[in-house]
Amino acid sequence: MKQVLVLGGTRFFGIHLVKSLLEQGAGVTLATRGLTPDPFGSRVNRIRVDRTDPDAMKAALQGARYDVVFDDVAYCSNDVKNLLDSVSAERLVQVSSASVYPDRPDTPEEEFDPFQKELVWCGRTDFDYGEGKRQAECALFQADPGQNAAAVRFPYVIGPDDYTRRLLFYVEHIRKGLPMQVDNLDDRLSFISSEEAGRFLCHLGSRRETGPFNAAAQGTVSLREIFRFVEEHTGKPALLSPDGEEGPYNGGESFSLRTHRAEASGFSFSKLEDWLPGLLERYLQSTL
User: Fold this and answer.
1) Measured on CA atoms in the order 97, 166, 281, 225, is the torsion positive or negative?
2) In terms of Cα–Cα distance, which of 108, 92, 101 is closest to 140?
């Protein structure tokens, strides 16, 4: 990779993507709204733009060509159209989501086919999150069938830098004795660390394989198991109540991702059990 454009890249797994790109010697340009500072100083170039505004995108990017474009913030088909109309790329890697699938264990990429589903041009508020991501993938693969493109389907991304604070929510509530309303205590959930998510995106940018790729740590965990770990380390019970604050992972059922395609490309994923306890301990320290 030589010249790379990253849409996003100022927080969470985007930070780890950019770090990996810089370690490989890539010239990196960040395209963002300019609302979140990044830690890269003079090591990256920056373009300030609202990617939902097609005219602003064309004016800011001016049809430039990059070796690789990483799109971390495509939430609907119009987002993808605005990008494709404004820039060209030897390769395009788009961040998608496991939300394109129905909840189910050991899900392969074939469970959702973005090449066959009808493409609907839509904005970010026209559909729910899952359908928005499906349509973003449809646009990626159907609007320009000749594009060398890949979509990465992540499960829940977690890490010490997780601005969503979803997993931290549970740790804080147990530590502080606050009631929670949880509807999926025993469902098996899939995760990936923000650091590994960034490294995998970087890896895929240097490959030639196209189409959708699942990316997830090996193994799953239930909220009951997470609660038990936190309870043992705090000496406090998780307070579950229908009147408690609703848990961030509510509404989902057991799911996991089959990562054979990613592994065949030469990437090895970590085991969830090897690093999740350390992350929970770090969260526990932050709530003291």
Assistant:
1) negative
2) 92
Q: What amino acid is encoded at 41 in this protein?
A: G
| CA distance between the termini of the chain | 43
Instruction: Give me 57's structure tokens.
Output: 């995108």
Q: Are 156 and 223 in contact (CB under 8 A)?
A: no
Hey, what are 247's tokens? 């848990």
- Answer whether 151's CB lies under 8 Å from 212's CB: yes
Contact criterion met (CB below 8 Å) for 223 and 184: yes
pLDDT in tens, the chain (288 residues): 699 999 999 999 999 999 999 999 999 999 999 889 999 999 999 999 999 999 999 999 999 999 999 999 999 999 999 999 999 999 999 999 999 999 889 999 999 999 999 999 999 999 999 999 999 999 999 999 999 999 999 999 999 999 999 999 999 999 999 999 999 999 999 999 999 999 999 999 999 999 999 999 999 999 999 999 999 999 999 999 999 999 999 998 999 999 999 999 999 999 999 999 999 999 999 988
> So what's the pLDDT on residue 1?
67
List 158's β-bridge partners, or say none: 193
**Helices marked H in the chain:** 13-23, 54-61, 77-84, 129-142, 166-176, 194-205, 223-234, 260-264, 272-286
The answer to whether 30 touches 214, Cβ cutoff 8 Å, is no
What is the C-alpha to C-alpha distance for residues 178 and 232, in angstroms, rounded to an integer?
Answer: 17
- Give the SS3 label for residue 43: helix
Give DSSP secondary structure letters for 245-273. Answer: EEPTTTT-----B--HHHHHTT--PPBHH
